[in-house]
Write a structure and sequence with these properties.
Number of helices: 12
Number of domains: 2
Strand content: 15-25%
Order of helices and strands: EEEEEEHHEHEEEHEHEHEHEHHHHHEEE
CATH topology of the largest domain: TIM Barrel
Shape: globular
Helix content: 25-40%
Structural class: alpha/beta
CATH superfamily of the largest domain: Metal-dependent hydrolases
Length: about 400
Amino acid sequence: MLILRNCRLIKELTEDYSKQYADILIDGKYIIAINDVGTDFKVQCEEINICNKTVIPGLFDLHAHIDCRSLDPSRMHLKGAGTTAFEAYECGREYLRQGYTTVRDCGCRFNAAIALRDAINEGIVQGPRMIASGLIITPTERGNSTFETLYVEADGPEEVRKACRQELQKGADFIKVMGTGAFYNVGGVPGETISSLEEFEAAVKVAEMKNTYVAAHCHGTGAIKLAINAGIRTIEHGSFIDDVGISMLKGNDNCFIIPTLSIFMVTNDDPSLIPNQILDTIKSLKEAMTNCIINAYKAGLKLGWGTDIDFENLKKRPGYEFIVRKKILDFDNIDMLLQATKYSAEIVRLNDRLGTVKAGKYADLIVIDGNPDDNIFVMEKDLIHVLKEGNLIY
């Protein structure tokens, strides 16, 4: 057992306890009780004085590529399975250090994310809770060669069904498909639809048979609408969603957008990281993308939390997604914290055990040096503590 004393809580991220300060009792993986400060829990165990620092649930990143070392695709092609696995492990550790206790990998070479998930679950290595998609299923398309070892090409519903079954057979937790071109695929057109409704529907049907779901890479508004109609669970990026697409998602409890601002905005900080032909595309679409995501937010859509960031920039820019959503989109602090915790847990159907500070849920908790509800920029600091399932990691 473990007691966290003198915890500052944020009411929007806490359930069944209304006061701002509390002591938290943890037994094994779970929060057992949240009581008034100074409570005698009548147990003998280790205690940690949090000293009125802020305690919130562990963060989620719903759009990661755990094998992506840098923004230079050519460097990925030079590395084999063994190197990729070790680098994925290092990336997972960095996510955990930054408070991301749950990471959803949206495409990883050599099944490295699946292997890392299994090693973490078996206690072989330490890392975040991994949710892995396996390889990305894509139509034959311009730019696929940029990340050729990341994709499985499948054209038409029959090939899509086969590819989905193969990824699930390898141990994927969910299916990832490409619905539009991609910014970082040389020759790809981000707004262009590349998958049909029938291909989307085929993927959804296979996923539902296995009690899981489909995530679709979609920048353009046409593919976004097809994805919604097909029953896709998460729309990755959603960069150019229009008013019609927003209205289709308003009140929709089965489909959600996962914006990924970090990877897009890192080009502002260091354009030298990006090949010129890709940088020009990103710059030309920046204003449209930010306006569309702002409109989705102002319409009240429940947005998930994703970064899509590479390891080098993840390590160099802690809390970057918070900073970008604040500086560029002017999101409310509480809304961002909800997106990174409670909303993301709901989107990936883990809200029965994660996403809020509540007795009975997993003790995935982070201790922050500052009050992020008042000043979100404290998320750039190193965390004081990270707990995953009751284990004090840092």
